[in-house]
Structures are given as structure tokens and as C-alpha cells.
């Protein structure tokens, strides 16, 4: 594993930076933090939209599944009705 590259010798006192350099870094960090917070808010908003869409799709699937069950039951009744009356039943 390689050693990290140090901009100054280990144990040496850091050179004092100018106030302008510190302020530049501070502004940069604040900007990055603010942008990250905005992105996080957008991700959360999209997650809420996706959760709403998921719920709507689950309801749709459930309703259609019930309708399929109902239609299959009806199909069985219709198919069995001619046989009960002694009529001809077509092959499936």
C-alpha cells in the first residue's frame, strides 16, 4: 500500500494561509453543501412521487386481478350453461 503524498513534511507546522484563501475554501464548501442539500431534496421529492405511483399501480393490479377472477368465473358459468341445458358445448 502506498503512502499518502504530503504537501509538507510530516510533523512540520502548516504554513499560514491568507484569509482570502480560507474564505474561498469556505464558500466552496458551503456551495457544495447547499447543492447537495438541494439534490437530496429533489431525490426525496422523486421518491414520494414514485411511492404514489407505486400505490396507484398496486391498486390497478389488484382491481384488474379481481376483474380477471370474476371474468374467469363468468366464463365457466357461460360454458357450463349449455351443457346443463343439454346443448352443444364448443371445444376450448
Give an account of the 3D structure.
0% of the residues are buried. It contains 1 helix and no strands. The mean pLDDT is 86. It has one helix spanning 19-84. Helices cover 72% and strands 0% of the residues. The protein is an all-alpha fold and 92 residues long.
Write a brief structural summary.
It is built from 1 helix and no strands. With 92 residues, it is an all-alpha fold.
Key descriptive features of the protein:
92 residues, 0% strand, mainly alpha, rod-shaped
Summarize the helices and strands and which ones pair or pack.
Elements: H1 19-84
User: Distance between termini?
Assistant: 72 Å
Q: SSE string, helix = H, strand = E? A: H
Which class best fits the helix and strand makeup?
A: mainly alpha
Q: List low-pLDDT spans.
A: none
Strand count, sense and closure of the main sheet? none
Beta content: under 5%
Helix content: over 70%
Rg over C-alpha atoms, rounded to the nearest angstrom: 35 Å
How many helical elements?
1
> What is the global morphology?
rod-shaped
Task: Please report the total strand number as a whole number.
Answer: 0
Mean pLDDT: 86
Amino acid at each position: 500500500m502506498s503512502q499518502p503524498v504530503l504537501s509538507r513534511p510530516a510533523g512540520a507546522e502548516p504554513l499560514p494561509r491568507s484569509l482570502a484563501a480560507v474564505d474561498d475554501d469556505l464558500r466552496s464548501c458551503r456551495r457544495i453543501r447547499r447543492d447537495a442539500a438541494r439534490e437530496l431534496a429533489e431525490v426525496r421529492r422523486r421518491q414520494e412521487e414514485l411511492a404514489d405511483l407505486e400505490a396507484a399501480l398496486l391498486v390497478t393490479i389488484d382491481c384488474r386481478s379481481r376483474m380477471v377472477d370474476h371474468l374467469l368465473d363468468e366464463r365457466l358459468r357461460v360454458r357450463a350453461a349449455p351443457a346443463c341445458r343439454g346443448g352443444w358445448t364448443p371445444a376450448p
